[in-house]
């Protein structure tokens, strides 16, 4: 190759190197299943800086695990019903899939535990009294009634109740008496109606009912 060609190639390489490279996604790297738990532990242990654990990602992983578990269960039931040699490769594939699901579950458990640990602790609203002095302070504002005072109060309450019972019984007797009196008056009036009269008769009677006192005047004309 001549010197002119070498200079041309060098210029081309220099020009290409000076060009800005387009920004794009970094090349994908394959991660083995056995390394997932190790990488997960490194994410949790990172402190400078701390790697955030989004709860949305945990929810997505949980959904993925649930779907893959359902698929593994379906294929396990399918191969259990088959007796041919053709399903052996399905059993092997399903076994590898089940192992992958178990590793995902381990990763999710580690991340969920760390996310829960990072969650800010809530302040307790009520402090439980555990010490002896705290338990004794619970009774500082209670009023204790002396036994003698209690007996006097009980006797006074009982006397008051007995008085109320006597008043109630007396009221019942009075009501029965008034009811009987009014019944006798009505009976006498009804009997007088049956007696022929040729003139106007005016009967005025006064009696007391349990709730009010009133006067009744009855007039009628019988031939």
From TrEMBL:
Residues 8-156 form the DUF6604 domain. Signal peptide: none annotated. It comes from the Eukaryota. InterPro entries: DUF6604. Residues 10-30 are annotated as: Disordered. This is DUF6604 domain-containing protein. It comes from Dothistroma septosporum (strain NZE10 / CBS 128990) (Red band needle blight fungus).
């Amino acid at each position: 190759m001549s010197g002119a060609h070498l200079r041309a190639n060098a210029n081309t390489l220099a020009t290409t190197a000076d060009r800005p490279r387009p920004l794009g996604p970094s090349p994908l790297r394959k991660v083995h299943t056995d390394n997932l738990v190790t990488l997960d532990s490194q994410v949790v242990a990172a402190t400078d800086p701390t790697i955030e654990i989004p709860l949305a990602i945990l929810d997505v992983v949980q959904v993925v695990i649930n779907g893959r578990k359902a698929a593994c269960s379906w294929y396990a039931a399918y191969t259990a019903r088959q007796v041919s040699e053709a399903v052996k490769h399905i059993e092997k594939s399903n076994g590898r899939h089940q192992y992958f699901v178990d590793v995902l579950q381990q990763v999710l458990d580690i991340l969920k535990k760390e996310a829960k640990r990072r969650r800010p602790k809530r302040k307790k609203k009520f402090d439980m009294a555990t010490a002896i002095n705290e338990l004794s302070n619970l009774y500082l504002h209670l009023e204790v009634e002396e036994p003698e005072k209690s007996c006097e109060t009980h006797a006074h309450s009982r006397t008051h109740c007995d008085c109320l019972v006597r008043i109630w019984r007396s009221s019942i007797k009075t009501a029965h008496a008034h009811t009987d009196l009014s019944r006798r008056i009505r009976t006498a009036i009804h009997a007088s109606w049956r007696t022929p009269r040729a003139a106007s008769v005016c009967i005025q009677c006064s009696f007391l009912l349990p709730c009010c006192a009133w006067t009744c005047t009855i007039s009628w004309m019988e031939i």
